[in-house]
Design goal:
12 strands, 2 domains, 681 residues, 48% helix, disordered N terminus, Alkaline Phosphatase, subunit A, eight-stranded mixed sheet, globular, single chain, four-stranded antiparallel sheet, alpha/beta
Length: 681
């Protein structure tokens, strides 16, 4: 036996490893994540590396200091696992250092956040309690010993060298073994949309990372990703698609020239990917609303509870007399409101583990919905009845092409700075219509409105939460549900104001209204939502939200395609016959005959009428007798993974701004060459 093996370092290694594995097992049990999976071997090896590093660092401290530091480490790890369970249960995603800009929001609703924790989550503190009890028992039996008063333990130079060298050698051996688990075939889930090696390099799908690397492993990789971004397009492989004959054609000569001369491999690969995407052709809905006004409303925390003629007659009218998409979803991700607004405006997937809209707010997007209408000489406006506290909309919307953005102060309506109270959407809609009616231009308008009144919290009394609560006094609904439904009443009243004022201004027939929910009311528990919605909320059904397109002259229709906000901009672009390139969007015109009925969730899971695929554990659930082959599932996953990765790279590299600059220069050079040629003649 070596000195290292007999030392306190070995004991600490065993204690830390046992503790971290215990926390992991309890975390998985409470989170309904399988324990008996081959990935647990990787988790054990990863936690062994973590335990060895901690034990090595602690070995330089004196005995009493080691014990204190162990307690600190154990407390931090238990709290981290505890918060991750609560965050995933409450928000629907795991928290990340990349979403730290939203910390203020979490602090604001900390009461609701803590109230959402299930009792089983507290089990992760059990190992900590056992460690404390064990130490108290041992301390009672041992006689007190005196130690010299210095924090660091004195070691001979020989001990230092032996301990360091032996630890490094073991770490190298363990690291090689760990790397092997990222590559060997038997430790890979063949249906997983992203490989374990890719996830190790860039943990951008937290739910899969937690499954494959453990909750503490995700924490380490998450911190690493904040400092090291390894994502690039150099290694992405995609098939070139044969161009089909379509009436919607594009001249890619300049784009191809720019791409051929591109020295940046990432930019080049993004361009090649986009140019090789299929072009959705014109269809029977193309230009149906050409020249009309458009108002898009992203409704805060709106789910299908809104579809109720008794309580919400205005929305019900729009829903039943317009085009309703009955299988529409608003998948949550980090910073759902801002990111899902961004995705609705751009047709790009936001980056799952960060506040994309905020982090990349200086980016510009020529394909964004505002810019498409700008090219058609529309007046474009955007408005929101809250401040810049959470999202920098004044900058974001301007860079997406909005002609002018109005925040709550610009609108001149009452608002609150305390979290529990929000501005009234009724005031908001009146202010928005005042601005629309005051326009001096004769051009049609395109306006984006983002509401706020139905935002949580619901567990505490608030102005909007109490305003219409008496409407539900004869129900057996819990108080938080009544407050939520009261807030929805404010939203519904605002829609009534909109319809009424458009009609009085003689603009109703010439205006199209598109509405979708940013996310479901995650401030409510599923069992609470089920007081009203009687369907099973598992398999992401809780994220089912309304999507409606309405015009007073249209024939009502219901569409069964599975869809989400990612398809909003290309769908509206076709309906208004805008000058747009369908290849530039990760979404598709949902009314196209070529549309693939499929909704993709933030972690790479997906669903349609046939099946639900859970990306977190690579399992698939069928809703009927028809099933996919393994190869078909792989193809769907590969396509989704490529879309989300390309979308991420487009955003991170501000691709559209770069492309437009280079296309402008190439166009100028081409014109100069032609001008010179004419002069020579």
């Amino acid at each position: 036996m070596t000195k290292w093996q007999n030392s306190k370092m070995l004991k600490n290694f065993i204690i830390i490893l046992a503790y971290t594995l215990s926390v992991e097992v309890l975390f998985r049990l409470a989170s309904h994540i399988t324990i008996f999976d081959v990935s647990i071997l990787r988790v054990i090896l990863g936690y062994s590396i973590l335990a060895l590093v901690f034990a090595f660092l602690l070995s330089w401290l004196k005995k009493s200091s080691q014990k204190i530091m162990l307690y600190i480490i154990f407390i931090i790890l238990a709290i981290y696992a505890f918060l991750q369970m609560g965050f995933n249960n409450f928000i629907g995603v795991y928290m990340s250092v990349n979403t730290s800009s939203q910390l203020g929001a979490v602090v604001d609703y900390v009461r609701e956040f803590l109230a959402s924790f299930l009792p089983i989550y507290y089990l992760v503190f059990l190992p900590l309690v056992l460690v404390i009890i064990l130490n108290l028992v041992l301390a009672h039996k041992k006689k007190p010993q005196t130690e010299k008063k210095f924090f660091l333990k004195k070691s001979s130079r020989y001990e230092y060298q032996i301990r360091t060298i032996s630890t490094l050698l073991i770490l190298v051996f363990m690291a090689l073994g760990y790397y092997g688990t990222l590559k060997v075939k038997f430790m890979q889930n063949e249906l997983q949309p992203v490989s374990n090696l890719e996830l190790f390099q860039n943990p951008n799908v937290p739910s899969i990372v937690v499954n494959e690397f453990g909750v503490l492993g995700f924490g380490v990789l998450d911190i690493k990703s904040a400092f090291i971004d390894t994502e690039n397009a150099n290694d992405l492989v995609f098939e070139k698609t044969e161009k089909e004959d379509t009436k919607r054609n594009f001249d890619d000569t300049l784009w191809q020239e720019v791409t051929t001369n591109e020295t940046n491999k990432t930019y080049q690969n993004i361009s090649n990917y986009l140019m090789n995407q299929p072009i959705t052709d014109y269809n029977e809905y193309t230009g149906l609303f050409a020249g009309k006004n458009l108002i898009v409303i992203m409704m805060e925390s709106a789910n299908e509870i809104l579809i109720n003629p008794e309580y919400y007659p205005n929305f019900y009218k729009i829903y039943t007399q317009g085009w309703s998409f009955v299988n529409h979803y608003s998948p949550r991700n980090s910073c759902s409101t801002g990111n899902n607004e961004f995705s609705g405006m751009t047709g790009l997937y936001s980056i799952y583990n960060n506040c994309t809209a905020n982090k990349y707010r200086k980016n510009t997007y020529s394909e964004a919905i505002f810019n498409l209408f700008n090219k058609q000489n529309y007046d474009t406006l955007s408005m929101h009845d809250y401040t810049e506290a959470y999202y920098y909309r004044k900058t974001i919307h301007q860079n997406l092409g909005s002609g002018k953005y109005y925040g709550v102060q610009d609108l001149g309506i009452d608002f609150y700075t305390e979290y529990k109270n929000w501005a009234s959407d009724e005031d908001f809609m009146n202010a928005a219509m005042d601005i629309i009616e005051a326009r001096e231009s004769d051009a049609p308008f395109m306006v984006w409105l983002t509401t706020v009144s139905s935002h949580q919290p619901y567990v505490v009394s608030s102005v909007e939460g109490d305003k219409y609560k008496d409407l539900f006094k004869d129900t057996d609904y819990p108080e938080d549900l009544k407050r939520y439904m009261s807030k929805l009443k404010t939203l519904d009243n605002s829609l009534g104001i909109l319809l009424d004022r458009l009609e009085k201004a003689d603009m109703l027939d010439d205006t199209v209204i598109a509405l979708y929910g940013d996310h479901y009311p995650y401030g409510l528990k599923n069992k609470t939502i089920n007081y009203v919605l009687d369907y099973d909320l598992s398999d992401y059904e809780v994220e089912r939200t309304p999507f409606v397109i309405y015009n007073s002259t249209m024939e009502p229709k219901k569409f069964s395609q599975y869809t989400s906000y990612i398809n909003l901009t290309p769908t509206l672009a076709n309906l208004f016959n805008l000058d747009y390139d369908p290849r530039l969007y990760m979404g598709t015109d949902v009314l196209s005959p070529d549309y693939e009925s499929l909704v993709v969730y933030a972690d790479g899971s997906w669903k349609n009428a046939k099946a639900y695929y859970d990306a977190s554990d690579g399992t698939i659930k069928y809703y009927g007798d028809e099933e996919y082959t393994i190869e078909e599932i792989k193809q769907i996953n590969q396509k989704i993974s490529l879309k989300t990765q390309m979308s991420s790279l487009i955003i991170k590299n501000n691709y559209f701004a770069d492309l437009n600059n280079k296309l402008t220069k190439a166009q100028a050079n081409q014109e100069q060459v032609l001008a010179n040629a004419e002069m020579e003649e």
